[in-house]
Amino acid sequence: MKQLKTTLLALVALFVVQGVVAQTREKSVVRTDSTTVITIVKTKPQYSDFVPKHDIRIGVGTMSLVTSFALDEVGCVDPIPNFRHDIAVGDSYLTPRMFIGNYTLSYTYQNRRWLQYGGKAVFGASTRWRKEANTGKKIENQSYYCLSIMPSVRFNWFYREKVQLYSTVSIGVVTDFEEAYPWGDLTLFGCSFGRKFFGFAEFGLGTAGWLRGGIGYRFNAVKK
Amino acid sequence: MRNYISIVVVALAAMFMATSCELESGTEPNPNRANQLLWNRVSDAVYQQHSHAEAVAQLNDTLIGKTYPKSLYKACELEVGENIYTLTYGTTYSSRSYRIQTDGKLLSQGGVWHLYYREGDYMEYVKMGKAVGIEGESAKFNLFIDNSEWGNTYYDHHYTAESEVEWEYDPIHECRSVKYNTFKGESTDSWKTPDYVIAFDLVEPMLLRSSIEQGKVHILYQDLVDYTKREVMVQIANKIVTFATPKLE
Question: CA A9 → CA A2, A4, A117, B35, B122, distances in Å?
Fold first, then answer.
């Protein structure tokens, strides 16, 4: 187990170091006179080519613990049986409670290879209706909604034009439209693949769900 | 551009299908659910009344010397006093017990027998009803039960009921065949101020052996908070229960 950990750490370090010291070669030719040609080769670090970017993403995630409290009545105590209530709703029925997903919209600004900052909004919902037994007409909406808005910071610990590995920390507010309380979201491991138009997959904890995925678009902030 | 939009739409649809799931199942549409709930309450009162009617019938037959297969006799104790006979019976799954005390007269002589109830061993027997015999009728009596003060054994509701009972031994099924020529009652929640009342009344006589085999019952439900009513006619034929179309007011 120890050996495996050491090997994994070494691999990560190798990727990171390789990215840091990656270099480009620039060759220029200078003519002095008709017989002498001097070739100058300059080596400069790749990081100086980095151009700040805007990053916009939309994604969807699975149920998370915090949204389950808002959307699935987790922790709620079953009401005391009430015959009068049972008769009052006896001519109706309930549709299944469906979770439609945690949808995320995020924007970040990247002015370093390793750093992005911005914000995101996550919206989740579970839907349920009470309908008349004879006609199927909707008579009561028992859906729940959950919205969280958080500033976020993303750390790219492996950066290439087409592949990036990262982690994200977001802290903000979550509300079920009745109460609001502070909460956060943590992307433990994220991977994006693509240059301008890309897809991403993440594993994390918090309001966006433990498993997330989506698509995004990044474009240069400053023209070269 | 169109390709990008297509990719976005397809990706969103795929993400939605991948994450949406059912959290809790729903209920089946059943136009008779409320009617069934009302009938469950009424039939519970009917069976409670029936258990006392059978005990009265058993005591009467014992006093006039009738014998039956052992399976017909409920677990009980009989005390014979001077013109006073006491039959104590109870349920094996409850701490409650019941007692019928005669006044020395048989039911066919117009006897008035009182029914008592006791909770556990710490309570005295308290009166909960009476059976009044009809002169010249050896297998008929009027039975009145009011357990509103103590509620039902299993459910949080109580009832009062009055019925005219007629019975005979059924040798084919080896049980008492009990016929209710009239049966009126009310049921509501116990332990608090009632917020609803269920009134029931026989339209056609009801026949019971081990269960309700036939009859017709009119049920009126009144919500005392919202002042709404609900009527249902319950028809039992060959143990099958059907409901007439309910009316909501």
Answer: 11, 9, 26, 68, 75
Rounded Cα distance, A108 and A117, in Å: 5
Query: Does the structure show a pLDDT above 50 at A22?
Result: no
Pairwise CA distance, residues B56 & B63, whole Å: 11
Determine the Cα–Cα distance for residues B180 and B227; give it in Å rounded to an integer: 31
**Is B151 inside any structural domain?**
yes
**CA atoms of B25 and A96, how far apart (whole Å):** 4
Alpha carbon separation from B121 to B44, B82, B99 (Å, rounded): 26, 25, 13
Q: Which domain holds residue A198?
A: 44-74+99-129+143-220
Structure tokens at A197: 């138009």
CATH number of residue A167's parent domain: 2.40.160.20
Residue range of the domain that includes B189: 32-248
- End-to-end Cα distance, chain B: 60
pLDDT higher for A8 or B139?
B139
d(CA A48, CA B145): 96
| Out of A47-61, A138-152, B9-23, B142-156, least confident range | B142-156
How many structural domains comprise chain B? 1
pLDDT, mean of residues A85-97:
90
> Is the pTM for the entire model greater than 0.80?
no
End-to-end Cα spacing for chain A: 48
Chain B residues 187-226 with a CB less than 8 Å from chain A: 189, 195-196, 221, 223, 225-226
Q: Tell me whether residue A165 is in a domain.
A: yes
Residue B228 lies in a domain: yes
Give me the residue from A60, A126, A136 closest to B15, CB to CB: A60
Sequence-separated (6 or more) residues with CB below 8 Å from residue B39 = B217, B219, B232, B234, B241, B243
Q: How many domains does chain A have?
A: 1
Instruction: Tell me whether 0.85 is exceeded by the ipTM.
Output: no
CB contact under 8 Å between B23 and A97, yes or no, is: yes
CA torsion through residues B67, B70, B73, B75, sign: positive
* Token pair listed for B164: 């005219």
Q: Is residue A79, in this structure, part of any structural domain at all? A: no
A128 burial (CB, 10 Å; 0-12 / 13-18 / 19+) is: middle
Interface membership of B27 toward A (CB under 8 Å): yes
Q: Could you count the other beta carbons within 10 Å of the beta carbon of residue A106?
A: 23
Domain presence at residue B201: yes
